[in-house]
C-alpha cells in the first residue's frame, strides 16, 4: 500500500511507505522459500482453484484464483491472497476475511489476523474463526504491528474525521488507546504488555525505541533497503542504514554494533526471505542475536556467494565460512556446513573446520547433523555418518534433499526440457534405497513434508507432457512426510 502525504512531504512519505509497510499491508509476492512453509498451495489452473495442504493433509475448502501465501512463523496458519482478497488458512479450514482490502497482516504466532474492511479495522481469531471490530472510522491504514504473542495490536492510520493527520493506537484487552500523541510517526513494533514500542518519527527522520516513557534512538539513517529484524522479545533489532551498513541495536544497554556492509540477515529463524522485501520481521524463537548465525549475501563476478558468521556477546561478528555457494546449519546450532570451490567443509562454532569431501556439486544434512549426503560432480550420491567416511549410495543422481531425517534423491533422469523426469529414491541413514516414485519432474522439501511433482502417464506407464492454456506443464502432485506413505492430492496441477 502506498501511503500519501500532503504536498511538501509526498516524496518522503513514499520512501518511508516502502521502508516500513509490513508485507501484510499489500498483496505479497512469493519471494523464495520460507523455511516454515508447512502450509502449501496446490494450483489447479483448469478449475481456477487453489487448495491447501498442511503436513500432507488436505485442508477443507478452497479459493477461486491463484493464491499467494503469507504464512505465520510456525507455518501452520497463513493469509492466502487472491489479488486484493485475503483468506485465512488453517487446519480448521479456509475463511474469507473480506472481499477486498489494502491492509491485512497475519500475526507472528499465527493465532490471528488484522485487516481493514471498509472503515473498520478487524481482528480475526484463528481459534473461533470469527472477527471483531478493533476500530471504527478508519480511512486508510499505514502500518499494523501485532505483538509477538498477539496480546496487543498497534497501528497507524488516517481516520475519516481527521483528514491527512496520522494517528497511532494500541488495542489491548478489548480497549483502544492512543499512543505517540503529538508525534507525526508510524508504529513499527509493540511488545505484548504494550510497555515497549518502536516507531519512526517523520519530523526527526529517526527510529526510536520507547519503553515505559523513556525514548532511545535506534537509528537516524534508515534506508530503502532496511529490513528491521526483531528478536522475539524486541530486546534487539538488526537493520541496514542508508550507507548500506548493517547494525545491531541492543535495548538492555542501548548499544549499537556495526555488523559490516552488504545484504545480511540472521539464520536463526524459521521464516525469512532471501530477497530484500523491506519488511519488519520478528525473528522466530530468538530472545537474543548473541550466538545467532548471521548470513551475508554477495555477488562476485556475477555469481551469488555467501558468508556465515557468529555474533558474540560483544557484538563482534566472526565469520565461520566465506565466499561459499551454499550452506546449512544443524538444528542444535553446533555446526555449519558450507560448499565452496567443490569442497564440502564442516565448521564448529569455535571456527575449527574439517573437509568432508572434495569435488562436490550439492549436499544436504539431517536436522540433527547425524548424516550428511552429497552428490559429486560425476553424479554419484554419497552418505556420511557422523565423522565417518563417505559411502557410495547411488549413481546418476541429480538432486538431493533431506526431510524428517530421510534423504530424498532424484536419479536416472531422462528426456529434456518439460519432458525430463527420473526416479525418486529415499535413504534412511546409509541403508539401501527405496524407489518411491517414477516419472518425477521435481520435488520440493518443506518443513513437515515433501511435495513430489510427477508427469502423467499413458496406458503403458510412459510419461506424457500436458500443458495449461498459459503453456505451463500440468503435473500430478503427491505429498509424503517420511517417504513411506505417498498421497495423491491433485491431478493436473501447475507447479
Number of strands: 44
Please tell me what the overall shape is.
Answer: globular
The Cα radius of gyration reads 24 Å
The pLDDT mean sits at: 85
Describe the overall structure:
The chain is mostly beta strands and 495 residues long. The protein is 2% helix and 54% strand. The chain contains one helix and 44 strands. Strands 37, 38, 39, 40, 41, 42, 43 and 44 form an eight-stranded antiparallel β-sheet that branches. Strand 13 (152-159) and strand 14 (166-172) form a beta hairpin. The longest helix is centred in the first third of the chain and has 11 residues, at 10-20. It is globular, with a radius of gyration of 24 Å. 42% of the residues are buried. Mean pLDDT is 85; it is low at 1-36 and 270-279.
Q: What are the defining features of this structure?
A:
mainly beta; 1 helix; 495 residues; 44 strands
Write a brief caption for the model.
This protein has 495 residues and is mainly β. The model is unreliable at 1-36 and 270-279 (pLDDT under 50).
Topology diagram in text:
Elements: H1 10-20, E1 39-44, E2 49-54, E3 57-64, E4 68-71, E5 78-82, E6 85-90, E7 93-96, E8 104-106, E9 112-117, E10 120-125, E11 130-136, E12 138-146, E13 152-159, E14 166-172, E15 175-179, E16 185-190, E17 196-201, E18 206-211, E19 214-219, E20 228-230, E21 236-240, E22 245-250, E23 255-261, E24 263-266, E25 280-282, E26 293-300, E27 303-311, E28 317-324, E29 326-329, E30 335-340, E31 343-348, E32 353-357, E33 360-365, E34 371-376, E35 381-385, E36 391-394, E37 397-403, E38 406-414, E39 421-427, E40 434-446, E41 449-454, E42 466-467, E43 473-480, E44 487-494
Parallel strand pairs: 20-25
Antiparallel strand pairs: 1-2, 2-3, 4-5, 5-6, 6-7, 8-9, 9-10, 10-11, 12-13, 13-14, 14-15, 16-17, 17-18, 18-19, 20-21, 21-22, 22-23, 24-26, 26-27, 27-28, 29-30, 30-31, 31-32, 33-34, 34-35, 35-36, 37-38, 38-39, 39-40, 40-41, 41-43, 42-43, 43-44
